[in-house]
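Same chain as my last thread, 405 residues:
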Amino acid sequence: MRKVLTKIQGDRVIWAVVALLALFSFLPVYSASSNLAYLYGNGDTFGYLRKHFAHLTLGFIIIYMVHKIPFNYFKGLSIIMLPVVILLLLITMAQGTIIGGANASRWIRIPFVGVSFQASTLASVVLLAYVARYLSKIKDKVISFKDSVLPLWVPVFVILMLILPANFSTAAIIFAMVMMLVFLGGYPFKYIVFVMGTGMVGLTMFILTAKAFPGLFPNRVDTWVSRIENFVSAEEDKEKEANYQIERAKIAIARGGILGQGPGKSVQKNFLPQSSSDFIYAIIIEEWGMVGALFLMSMYMLLLFRLVIVAHKSLDVYGKLLVIGVGLPIVFQALLNMAVAVELFPVTGQTLPLISSGGTSIWMTCLAIGIVLSVSKDIKEEKNKKAGKAAIDDISIDALDANTI
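reply #2:
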């Protein structure tokens, strides 16, 4: 065990938080998947647990391998991977997958392996690493908007346009994270306002086009509008799926109370269609109560705190922006998932990082965490180098004093 720990580098608190979240996830995933096992399987709930274990095992392998890579290498890797993710998004979009009569082109099946992969999650990490690289490159330089259109905004909007038709929530999160990153990176504020305005105009044009030609994107815009209307409307139609899920989630939360019903004793997991993914937080509250809910939230807040610490301590501009760019979306997505479960936000379809079942979400979260740990590892290495250099200087001074005497 000690040999394993010596090979683990980077921020130990982040390692501990990720490990705790992963260990805790087995309980709600095993409990919530019982409904899926009986509806779509042969009743073997242990199979879902094995699958979740395999996803997390591969996830931690990704963290370990990525955190060993010097973080400056991600500058070049982001450039190489950018056309790759655009190609993957094009292939995914071309599939035209239909789920329940709606366009849901989010998944691509890897040939020969038989594993489905959500390209938009990989695109998010790659794009934010690329934006961080560009911002570090122009740091302290006077740049015009015209100069930044091709190297910065064209890749951003190409990826957003490829994700938007099938996954509005992911596209919106990526756009918000890019805006935050360019603001923190010192990009001129007047240009940011202009880009945000352009984005709103583009979204409006997309909605109008989808309304005028409904065959292009079946039911997607209607789904977005319906979810927002269901959220803001005082009238509730329990026949609608979004309202049905929210109602069941609220019942689960109400049953949870302070200490919860106990592990595995959730009732609403039998009624919530997405109990092991999108609405797993409601199941956690039902089984573990407010104590479990606050514990989970505190873990994400501790992760956010350590992300800020790592970004602050990094001496490299790219390191600072990279940590914020790939790390903050994890916490943001977690808070968004929790907000949906307690009806503070419309239904988005975003999972709870490291807790919800699903391979792609876990793997891409682990990829982002590995990148953050790579930056934190560099901080400690620089600190050790300085300490070693200071010790050598002290020895040299002592030797000089001895010779003088």
